[in-house]
Write a structure and sequence with these properties.
Helices cover about 55% and strands about 15% of the residues. By secondary structure, the protein is α/β, with parallel strands linked by helices. It has a 5-stranded parallel beta sheet, sandwiched between helices. The longest helix is centred in the last third of the chain and has 15 residues.
């Protein structure tokens, strides 16, 4: 049973690699952004709550995101395994997830850290050509990532769950290293 959590800076290729691997393993790729958008689109009770925060330009609170993740991991297609992308983002969320997985008998998760240097990530994100992806904005997002999410690397490393993959390679090379590492 494969349960993976993907970490890494914006632009490291988490979403791409999670989609490739999820398809290969026939398990869902669960992106918190996708869960949020889906819940709002379907106007679920949690989605309606989230919409209020989004409409006012605020971040969706941790508790609401955690509730959405818990709801999603309880769905039928997630019982055979999953790849989480975008959650947890901080140690408090990781502790919540650890408790949730223990409570639901879904332990045994491994954490993939797709590591890539800031300059590589900036170049990748600038090449996407999105209007809001200026170098200043990207570097600020990286700073937030390093401050908030990077402590998760120590958290999972201390628990011997962390696998670090070199994200500064071609997409095919990253996929190959990832599949080789998970198979061993």
């Amino acid at each position: 049973m494969t349960r993976l959590i993907f970490l890494g800076p914006p632009g490291a290729g988490k979403g791409t690699q999670a989609q490739i691997l999820a398809q290969h393993l026939n398990i869902p790729h669960i992106s918190t952004g996708d869960i949020l958008r889906q819940a709002m689109k379907e106007q679920t009770p949690l989605g309606i709550k989230a919409q209020g925060y989004v409409n006012s330009g605020e971040l969706v609170p941790d508790q609401l995101v955690q509730d959405l993740v818990e709801e999603r991991l309880g769905q039928v297609d997630a019982q055979s395994g999953w790849i989480l992308d975008g959650f947890p983002r901080k140690v408090t969320q990781a502790a919540f997830l650890e408790e949730l997985l223990a409570k639901t008998g879904q332990g045994g998760e491994r954490v993939v850290n797709l590591d890539a240097p800031d300059d590589v990530v900036v170049t990748r994100l600038l090449s996407r050509g999105r209007k809001d992806d200026t170098e200043e904005v990207i570097r600020r997002r990286l700073e937030i990532y390093r401050n908030d999410t990077a402590p998760l690397i120590d958290y999972y490393s201390d628990r011997q769950k962390l696998l670090t993959i070199n994200g500064d390679q071609s997409q095919e090379e990253v996929t190959h290293e990832l599949t080789q590492t998970l198979a061993s």
